Amino acid sequence: MEEKKGVGMLIFGPVMTKTSKRATILIAAPVRLIGFFVLLFFAHEGAALLPILVCTAFLGIGNAGTLTAIFAIMADMPDVDELITGVRRPGTVSGMATFARKISSGMSGFVIGVLLALAGYNEELAAADLPQTAATQTGIGMIYSLAPAVLVVALICFSLVFPLSGKEFDVVKHEIARRKGEEEGAASEEERKICERVTGIAYDKLWNHAASEE
């Protein structure tokens, strides 16, 4: 899987530089969906190995693409935070992102345990190296395929409304430079609206140093 992920990053890296991070997600996420849905038909005992390997390749490549774009988006967040607060603090933004990932990782383990119990997973059968019931195997296959697919669909929906593409990011950078006195001239009406859409805050309320202390 790690090798497939590395190949995927090489594939989607050039795509991202030529399009945008959002476009990269909208290309890579459907690749993951294809892998999940096809894998669902082979999530049973005795399934052919080759289709599973092909699906795994799709999942690895799609996962690499979405992760590459997501981490690239995270690198842009300090600029948005700086435009809001007037203070550049990438460490704080990175720390919050890491904390969120830790929380989601812990929650995912709990949710998977609950879903396995609902699917009828029998620990005694597993300890005796015996197969689970057919219904349980089907349930585990759905957990592995459909549950992540739902999250990928949510990722696609968020990407469609994500307000920070290449153009918006350039506007944010120019606005920060303008606030620092590194660029002259006032922002156009379009640029003001972009800043408001990206930050969710009225243009006149931006660059508020007091917000960094809250």
Structure notes:
The protein is mostly helical and 214 residues long. The protein has one domain: Up-down Bundle (Growth Hormone, Chain: A), CATH 1.20.1250. The protein is 75% helix and 0% strand. It has 8 helices and no strands. It has helices at 2-18, 21-40, 49-85, 90-118, 123-127, 134-161, 166-179, 189-199. The radius of gyration is 22 Å and the shape is elongated. The model has no long low-confidence stretch (mean pLDDT 89).
In short:
This protein is mainly alpha-helical. Helix content is 75%, strand content 0%.
Layout of helices and strands, plus pairs?
Blueprint: H1 2-18, H2 21-40, H3 49-85, H4 90-118, H5 123-127, H6 134-161, H7 166-179, H8 189-199
Features:
75% helix; mainly alpha; 214 residues; Growth Hormone, Chain: A
First-last Cα distance: 42 Å
Count of all domains: 1
Mean pLDDT: 89
Beta strands, count: 0
Report the structural category.
mainly alpha
Portion in strands: under 5%
Globular, elongated, flat, extended or rod-shaped: what is the shape? elongated
Determine the fraction of residues in helical runs and give it as a percent range.
over 70%
- The fold-level CATH name is Growth Hormone, Chain: A
Q: Number of DSSP helices?
A: 8
Instruction: Write the H/E string, N to C.
Output: HHHHHHHH
- How is the main sheet built? none
Gyration radius, to the nearest Å? 22 Å
CATH class (first level) name: Mainly Alpha
CATH-scheme architecture:
Up-down Bundle
Uncertain segments are none
